[in-house]
Amino acid sequence: MPLLAGPVCLLLHHPRLSWGLATTASWIAFFIALTLLDQVLSNGTITYALGGWAAPWGIEYRIDEINAFVLLIVSGISAITLPFARTSIEYEINPRRIYILYTAWMLCLTGLLGITITGDVFNVFVFLEIASLSSYTLISLSRDPRSLTAAFRYLVMGTIGATFILIGIALLYIMTGTLNMMDLSQRIPAVADTRTVKMAFTFLIVGIGLKAALFPMHFWLPNAYAFAPSAVSALFAGTATKVAVYLLLRFFFTVFGPEFSFDVMQSDRVLLPLALVGVFAASTAAIVQSDVKRMLGYSSVAQIGYMVIGISLVSVLGVTAGILHLFNHALMKAALFVSLGCVVYRIGSTRLTDMAGVGRAMPWTMGAFVVGGLSLVGVPLTVGFISKWYLILAALEQQWWWLAVLVLVSSLLALIYIWRVVEFAYFKAPADPAREITEAPATLLIPTWLLILANVYFGIDTSLTVGVAERAAKLLMGTAS
Amino acid sequence: MEIFGLYNYWVVVVLMMIGLYVVVASGNLIKKIVGLNIFQTSVFILYISIGKLKGGTAPILMEDPASYSNPLPHVLILTAIVVGVATTALGLALAVRIYGAYGTIEEDEIEEQESTT
């Protein structure tokens, strides 16, 4: 659906019209994702052979609990941020380029949804490149010239990552002669002991790690987020890295199987310390940033660390926590970035010093930011609390007290950097008292508060998210046993 | 003879390393793109080598060819080449715009300008 909408946007050539089309397409995709999730929950896995060729020769689309869930996140975030995008984008980028932005947005959405839905490893690469190429374009569309260098750096890193994935796929194909994920998972055990398969595993994980901005491969991310247009940052924060984490889950558990990934390769012993260091290093880096958008970028790196901690615990509870955090972090980061988008719309900057005193001038916007920030810290009644709670439960289940303590301590770091923003926004006098700052318009505030309310709602009523995440985790762990 | 028999894989590895080195070591944006291209090409050759069979023919319009190359990796790499071309085009376009904005495509000079503004 978004794929169809992309070229049409380009043809329409009109900012408003292409926006309308993109929004409609996203909402339709969102509803399709909803019905898919519903069907998968009641009927089990759905498969669809593309072009009528049966798997494992043809390309197969395969939807089970986990990717239906990720589909829902991706299309949902896009559907909510697009209404926000209209006003914000008109302010932030050159009006003649707006239709290009929506075209790239649609292609990016296509890529992300495609990665999630497909059951074929080469198709993953193709969709990955669709998503990445359009995301480089999206970043570079901002007026700030620094966005160009950020996009270029992302392009270089992203291409290396994608090529690594390509090498991994080639090595797997040499050993097994198949590209279908289900087929691969059956054939890999027979050849698991060869060095080729181990190399393939390493290449794939490093490649996906680059895409997911897994510490220490995260250097492209903060700049890319900081200089992209606000709505685009919100989209990426909510979707792009999440899809990469999903791929990580997919390859660990479905394609290679937990026994190979964690017993033979012992990747959990590498991932867990890296993720922990990542959480602390990125949170500390976030504290010293003077630009709030950049701070949120670093905090994203830290949050991805939490997801990986969950995954590397290799238990149903740990994976549940990882998937939950995937959903919850998408919600809260998107909410934070859109509320910053409101700030940019009014004061034209996200530097901390420029934000002095905006709390009083824009109570709704900053209110949204504070709730989102609290969610990031993990205060009860928000989504952040739920995923941290499960993460700590999973750590305690393994009797790893130190890990639970470390997770708590790192949450305090999050509290510090959110507090700095609050301090500047509410307690500092405005830098320029003569300047009138008014509340952001309703077209920006409504999507922002929708996201915030979703944050609170899923923090209180967890039956949907936890239920699905648990089923998905059981499915992932169960494919091996 | 095993080592010489697998010479195209050696070519792949060498090209891959050259490409990666250029990407990491060079400060010029265009050279970085060239490095990326070399890196990607090495992977293309890897794929093509997988599918090729000595003396094999292309299995097109033939009844029962005796031995033929595996067409699948070749088709795959056709897609990857297209992707590579698109990446290069986008990278070069970005480089042009960076040149327009900064007046240089040397990475250290750009960083200098960024830190002063």
Can you characterise this structure?
The complex is a heterodimer of chains A (481) and B (117). Chain A is an all-alpha fold and 481 residues long. Chain A has a domain at 266-481. Chain A is built from 21 helices and two strands. Chain A has a two-stranded antiparallel sheet. The two termini of chain A are 37 Å apart. Chain B is mostly helical. Chain B is built from five helices and no strands. Chain B is elongated and about 70 Å long. The relative contact order of chain B is 0.12. Chain A binds chain B through residues 122, 125-126, 129, 133, 136-137, 140, 145-146, 148-149, 151-152, 155-156, 159-160, 162-163, 166-167, 170, 173-174, and chain B through 20, 23, 29, 32, 36, 39-40, 43, 46-47, 50, 73, 76, 79-80, 83, 86-87, 90-91, 94-95, 97-98, 101-102, 110, 114.
Please indicate the percent range of residues of chain A in DSSP E strands (runs of 2 or more). under 5%
Rg of chain A, alpha carbons? 21 Å
- Ranges of chain A where pLDDT stays below 50 over 5 or more residues in a row are 9-13
Helical proportion of chain A? over 70%
Shape, per Cα inertia axes of chain A: globular
CATH architecture name of chain B: Orthogonal Bundle
Order of helices and strands of chain B: HHHHH
Strand content range of chain B: under 5%
Classify the secondary structure makeup of chain A into a structural class: mainly alpha
- Give the structural class of chain B: mainly alpha
Topology of chain A as a string of helices (H) and strands (E)? HHEEHHHHHHHHHHHHHHHHHHH
Q: Name the strands of the widest sheet of chain A in spatial order.
A: 1-2
Query: Can you count the beta strands of chain B?
Result: 0
Number of strands of chain A: 2
Q: Radius of gyration of chain B in whole Å, from Cα?
A: 20 Å
Oligomer: heterodimer
Give helix % range of chain B.
Answer: over 70%
Shape of chain B: elongated
